[in-house]
Amino acid sequence: TQQISRMLTKLFQRARLEKPGQVDLRAAEFTLNLLAAMYDRSGTGYIKIRSAAAALIALSGDTLLAKYRAFFQFYAVPDGKVALITRSALRGLLTDLNQIPAIVGESCTLSCVEIATHDCFHGVLNSAIVEEKFLSWLRSEPAVLLWLPTCYRLSATAMVSHQARCR
Description:
Blueprint: H1 2-18, H2 27-39, H3 49-59, H4 64-75, E1 77-79, E2 82-86, H5 87-97, H6 99-102, H7 110-120, E3 128-129, H8 131-139, H9 147-157
Antiparallel strand pairs: 1-2, 2-3
């Protein structure tokens, strides 16, 4: 958690410079507390960097496609000239991401993760998939991650303004 705390402090310091007055001075502390609540429930002081990165990517303001590509980069393993995501890596990603809705009582069972993993690898003979297959599956909005595009759409519509007037 100390390493993540230092990284978050640097991250939010840069964000404050880029967007003065828009970033709370305690943002790093709040974010670390959220990550600890999601990934260190027993209070060991240990949070996997990859789990924290997955949560930060998911909660970022980036586009869905950028988030999906970042997930692949963090969880894929190199295989020669290409990177692949294995079934176990996908299980790890889905488990990590499902800690986000779980923090507000909307958890999914392990069977949901298994069903989603099976669905992603449906018709695949290899033990791992390439990025395009992974992205294609995520674009189909699997039920286990339906909260992610939903939250993205909600945040995107918050920025929409129109000139219509109500009577």
